[in-house]
Amino acid sequence: MARLGRTDVDVFPLVLGGNTFGWTSDEENSHRVLDAFVAGGGNFIDTADSYTSSVPGNSGGESETIIGSWLAARGNRDSVVIGTKVSRHPEFKGLAAPTVTAALEASLVRLGVDHVDVYYAHFDDRRTPLAETAAAFDSLHRAGKIRVVALSNYSAPRIREWLDIARREGYEPPAVVQPDYNLVTRRRYEREIAPLLADEGIAAVPYFALASGFLTGKYREVGPLGRAAPYFAVIGALLTGKNRSNRQEFGERLRRVLASRYFTEAGFAVVKAVEDVASARGVAMSTVAIAWLRGRPGVVAPIASARTVDQLPALLASAEFELTAEETAALDEVSARVG
Fold first, then answer.
1. Model confidence over 159-198: pLDDT tens digits?
2. DSSP secondary structure, 164-180, as one string
3. Taking the CB of residue 71, how many other CB atoms lie within 10 A of it?
4. Across-strand partners of 81?
5. pLDDT in tens, 70-97
6. Distance in angstroms (rounded) separating the CA atoms of residues 275 and 272
7. How far apart are CA 229 and CA 261, in angstroms?
8. Contact 86/120 with Cβ under 8 angstroms?
9. What's the whole-model pTM score?
10. Is the peptide bond before 133 cis (omega within 30 degrees of 0)?
11. Reduced to 3 states, what is the DSSP secondary structure of residue 203?
12. What are the structural domains, with CATH classification, of the chain?
């Protein structure tokens, strides 16, 4: 287990992402994945109130509801750490104080719990004064409804501003930050955010640990979507097009679009380097990629999702797999050319 920053929360060094629950994993299959994750030693589960509102037939909160039904069926609330987020649910957009409070109450109902262990401001809301949002989170912490204040997708200046407000007002400060960080997305986090987290003793819990599947070797050529496709335009087309009717197909196409950001010569060189290490050590590429991320300064537990139980062993193995100094240096060098 690893300590979650300066908190008293101990977590397994891999977080199970819940973004597939209620989307490409139905309730029964999601429960199997959760069971296997816990059986493998895992205890930290990540979700959001907005998961998965963009999926056909969903309205948001489906992932929380599935996790809640699993908690109720297993009776294991006290042995797991639940993290969820606010700001993107269709009914609770933004981070105004009343919205944060109402959104958390709705999440607690869906999860069937009386508190959330880690509560993230999912995306920065520039329309709401940061002091208002920080006060709302502090109030919920004082009420015992959240144990740890956390931020996701915040810039270094905005993290620092929240910390300054917390110090000035005596609020509970953020103890966890969830950044986009992996072998092909390094520069912004390492240059701007990591030094701040190190100074403040804040834990990093990175998402997109496998770069939307890119680091598993799943994508070997640019293909029809390629880098030439306007990224946000394609995302919009996927979210509104007829192809949304098939959840599995929609999920795969969306993952490919997300991964297409890395379809460059430098990006594929990283994939080759990961594959070389994996082949030499007899492990899966995902094990290598997540182990590298887990070994970065300040990173406590990377987040990875599993649609099926079969995908879990390689992810769980990353919690104990240790790269050699030579392997780490090789991955550092090739990935530094990407960003």
1. 999 999 999 999 999 999 999 999 999 999 999 999 999 9
2. HHHHHHTPPPP-EEE-B
3. 18
4. 44
5. 999 999 999 999 999 999 999 999 999 9
6. 5
7. 10
8. yes
9. 0.92
10. no
11. strand
12. 2-217+283-323 (3.20.20.100)
